Amino acid sequence: MLKNSEDVVRTGLNGAEGISRAESPAMQSPGPTSPRHDWTRGEVRALFELPFAELMFRAQSIHHANFDPAAVQISTLLSIKTGGCPEDCAYCPQSASHDTGVHAEKLMSLEAVLADARAARAAGASRFCMGAAWRSPKERDLDEVCAMVAGIKGLGLETCATLGMLTVGQAERLKDAGLDYYNHNLDTSPEFYESIITTRCYQDRLETLDHVRAAGIAVCCGGIVGMGETREDRVGMIATLAGLPAHPESVPINMLVRVAGTPLADAPALDPIEFVRTIAVARITMPRSMVRLSAGREDMSDETQALCFLAGANSIFYGPRLLTTPNSACDRDQALLRRLGMVAME
């Protein structure tokens, strides 16, 4: 009979027998130490390969040590400038390279954005995120976005934006306007990146993250899974994120939403358990980050989402759309959170 799970010798870690939690850095129990930034790919791979129950135990233990497990952050995402993006991201319906029926639109007005922000606040959102389909913002556009940021801050909401690549000066202007978070995802591993995007390189993304961090803006950075990548690519993505000098304060993990007209429209569906494993490994390696269960929830079962929360996800997007793709219905989200006994973070 197993008497103490902390003393049990586990098998299956990298195919080796006789490796205990105490002997492996990837198996050590969570404690009050500072988050690590030296995760190796081998250690991240070992986490992915753990028996599912063991992985969930570790993720839950770390989640409980750092967060209220019954609280979930509610964020709302609005596309303030839709379509016509010059980038060729294979997953994106807003790319001008793909025929998806999404047409280029002008930047929304300040009044319209603030109206949406007020509605989001009334629905229980604590963070309001804005997305614009740009490679990088023009200065005249940034003037308007900064006014939006200031107005949303005035409503008492946290602010987040994703506008493409930023210069140092642009990041500083957004900070001065009151921007709390900037989203700029790495998307996937460095090795798989060129299979998904050719109009910019991985280093471009890392440089924008550096500019955002230097300006004093919190970083929102994660990726997309289910794009035809291998588990090793998911290992590489998490290892890169966990190896940043400062972990992203928010880590969105997206399941690919397959859109007709994009190169990934027929990508094979990812096993839901593998998706949950990705959430759990993100939680373990970045213990104090908000791990956001992002795109793809509309096609997830309630059971899959519940497992994601158990694995350490503690943030969702709330509302009928994520930029241009559908999101889980609000009444479904409310019902699921009630069933799970979860509440919105203040």
How would you sum up this structure, described in words?
By secondary structure, this protein is α/β, with parallel strands linked by helices. Helix content is 35%, strand content 14%. The chain has ten helices and twelve strands. The strands form two sheets. Strands 1, 2, 3, 4, 5, 6, 7, 8, 9 and 12 form a ten-stranded parallel beta sheet that branches. Strand 10 and strand 11 form a beta hairpin. Helix 5 crosses helix 6 (202-214) and helix 8 (272-285) packs parallel to helix 9. Mean pLDDT is 85; it is low at 1-32.
Write the layout of secondary structure elements.
Blueprint: H1 41-48, H2 52-66, E1 71-81, H3 110-122, E2 127-132, H4 139-154, E3 158-162, H5 168-177, E4 181-183, H6 202-214, E5 218-220, E6 223-225, H7 231-242, E7 250-255, H8 272-285, E8 290-293, H9 302-310, E9 315-317, E10 321-322, E11 325-326, H10 330-340, E12 343-344
Parallel strand pairs: 1-2, 1-9, 1-12, 2-3, 3-4, 4-5, 6-7, 7-8, 8-9
Antiparallel strand pairs: 10-11
Helix pairs in contact: 1-7, 2-8, 3-4, 4-5, 5-6, 7-8, 8-9
What's the short story on this structure?
By secondary structure, the chain is of the alpha/beta class. It is built from 10 helices and 12 strands. Helix 3 packs parallel to helix 4 (139-154), helix 5 (168-177) crosses helix 6 and helix 7 packs parallel to helix 8.
Residues in helix, %: 25-40%
How is the main sheet built?
A: 10 strands, parallel
Can you tell me the overall shape?
globular
Residue stretches low in confidence (pLDDT < 50, at least 5 long) are 1-32
Number of helices: 10
